[in-house]
Amino acid sequence: xxxxxxxxxxxxxxxxxxxxxxxxxxxxxxxxxxxxxxxxxxxxxxxxxxxxxxxxxxxxxxxxxxxxxxxxxxxxxxxxxxxxxxxxxxxxxxxxxxxxxxxxxxxxxxxxxxxxxxxxxxxxxxxxxxxxxxxxxxxxxxxxxxxxxxxxxxxxxxxxxxxxxxxxxxxxxxxxxxxxxxxxxxxxxxxxxxxxxxxxxxxxxxxxxxxxxxxxxxxxxxxxxxxxxxxxxxxxxxxxxxxxxxxxxxxxxxxxxxxxxxxxxxxxxxxxxxxxxxxxxxxxxxxxxxxxxxxxxxxxxxxx
Length: 304
Description:
The chain has helices spanning 3-19, 282-291, and strands spanning 28-34, 39-43, 49-54, 61-66, 72-76, 82-85, 91-96, 103-108, 114-118, 124-127, 133-136, 143-148, 154-158, 163-167, 173-177, 184-189, 195-199, 204-208, 214-219, 227-232, 238-242, 247-251, 257-262, 269-276. It has 304 residues and is mainly beta. The longest helix is centred in the N-terminal third of the chain and has 17 residues, at 3-19. It starts with a helix and ends in a 13-residue tail after the last helix. Residues 14-24 and 280-304 have low confidence and may be disordered.
């Protein structure tokens, strides 16, 4: 699922409740990769976790994404492949094993193409739904995390050069932001199109406007310990995984620390993806989003 469709799903769920189509917003589900382990942990909204998928020994899970059918894809820094699992965590196949060199972040576009950031070669590979891949955009160094905006532009954190690259749908690559970055790792968007970036060396989270202008430090370090990945839940709370002390920190929509969300089931956690459960069907997204448009405004390997 693309970040845009995920934000649309969240807005749709809220609109459904507001308009009386649903009695309450379904709880979110949290997926966390573990660079220090061969598994992905899944949490409910209360922070109770269980193993979602297991991978071969030495795989060391890092990047993750979902397609529109709910299938799950994961990379590992100890492997050169992308593994594909069902929505229930059953292994389906090795989705891709070419053009990959220590792949890290993953993302999915609206056509179910899968994008992988290669740490070693510094390029992004675009894979068609059948697993055929080719380089996308201009290469740099140490590409880490990926995220799409609502216009289909792909954003890439470049940890070694302290830069966030923006790759247009046609592959044109430009620099979106290069200030106030210190070993950028995880990136994510809020529903207003602002980009949030984890700075590993600065031990903070910074915010950029859709224009690329720096909007300040969103999380100043409280609750962070070698942070890596981050994502928002349906209520606008931000969660950051701490690579250094095996924890997940929670912040409200203003960046105020709310405490520790989880500490169990983590082994050098790397990236986090939060999805509504269940995600509204595509047809419902249009109905709810249009019906609530006038009512809703909005919407790693860091320490190398």
